Amino acid sequence: MEISVVIPVLNEEDNIANLHREIVETCNKHDYTFEIIIVDDSSTDQSVEIIKKLAPVKLIQFRKQFGQTAALDAGIKAAKHPYIVTMDGDGQNDPADIPKLINKLIAEDLDIVSGWRKNRKDSMSKHFFSRTANILRKFIINDGIQDSGCSLKVYKSECFEDINLYGEMHRFIPALLKINGFKLGEVEVNHRPRTAGVTKYKWSRSIKGIIDMIAVWFWKKYAVRPLHLMGTIGLFLFFLSFISGIMTLKEYFNGQDLSDTLWLLLTLFIFLIGLLIFITGLIMDILIKTYFENTGRRYYIIKKETENKL
C-alpha cells in the first residue's frame, strides 16, 4: 500500500510534530510505503521551523495565505502515490483511523472514503454552523455524505486528474467527484478535541462555503448545458412579459392612458431582462463548447476500456 498524506497547516506549532509522529507510527505499523506532504499556508509562528526538523516530510510553503483549499490542491498535485489521505493539521483527526478508511475503500472498490465525525469535539458555535451547512448541502447538492466537512479522507489519486480546487471548494470535493461518476463511501472516525492552538474557523468561511455550494450546484446541473438554465429563466420571463402585455392592452382598450400606468414599462422591462438572460445563456453555451474543444478536455470520464480480439 502506497499512500500520500497531505496536511494543510496554518500556525500549528504545538500540534504538528505530534501529529507527524502519529502518522509515521500508523504507517509503519501497517507497513505502508508513504510520504507526508505538509503545505504551510504562510504561518507566522514556529510551524515551519518545526516541520523542517521532521522526517520524512515534504514541505510546501506559500508566499502568503491562500487558504485551506489552495493548500490541499497544492499538496494533492505534489502527491506521488496512488492513494491520497487528507487531514487537518490541528490534531483533531486521528491518524489511527487511516487504515480503517483505506480498508473500506479497497474492500468496496470505492474511489473516495470520507470520515464521519459522529461524535464531534468542537465548540457549540462551530458545531452549529457546521450542522447548518450540512443541511443546506444536502438540500442543494446532496452528495450522500453525512459529514463532508471532515478533512480526514482517502482518495484514489485518479480522482484529481481533471479537478482544480478553488475558493472554499475543499468541503465539496465529494460532490465534485460524485458529479464525475466516482463512487463514495463513509466511515465513522474518532474526533479529538483541540488541545493547543486556535481554531481557524470563522463564520465568514460559512458564507463563502454557501456561495461555493451554489457554484457546485450549478456545475452539477448545468456545467455543459448552461443554456438549459438561462434559457428556461429567459423563456419564463418572456411568458411573464406576455401576460403583462395582455394586461397593458386590456388597460389600453379600457381607455386607460398608458402614461398613467406601469404596465407598459413593466412589460418592456421583463421582456428585455428575459432577452438578456437568454442571450447570456447562448454565450455561456458557446464558451463552454469552446473551452472543451480548445483544451482537449472531455466533459465525461472513461473508467476503463476493454477490447477483446479474436
Backbone CA Rg: 25 Å
One letter per element, helices H and strands E, the order comes to EHEHEHEHEHEHEHHH
Structural class: alpha/beta
Count of individual beta strands: 7
Strand percentage, roughly?
Answer: 5-15%
Strand ordering within the main sheet = 3-2-1-4-6-5-7
Mean pLDDT: 83
Could you give the distance between the termini? 36 Å
Global shape: elongated
Helix content: 40-55%
- Identify the CATH class of the largest domain: Alpha Beta
Quaternary structure state of the chains depicted: single chain
Number of helices: 9
Largest beta-sheet characterization: 7 strands, mixed
Count of distinct structural domains: 2
Q: Name the CATH homologous superfamily of the largest domain.
A: Spore Coat Polysaccharide Biosynthesis Protein SpsA, Chain A
Task: Describe the protein in words.
- This protein is α/β, with parallel strands linked by helices and 310 residues long.
- It folds into two domains: 2-222, Spore Coat Polysaccharide Biosynthesis Protein SpsA, Chain A; 226-295.
- It is 47% helix and 12% strand.
- It has helices at 16-29, 47-52, 68-78, 98-107, 124-140, 173-179, 203-222, 226-253, 263-295, and strands at 2-9, 33-40, 58-61, 83-86, 112-116, 153-156, 184-188.
- The two termini are 36 Å apart.
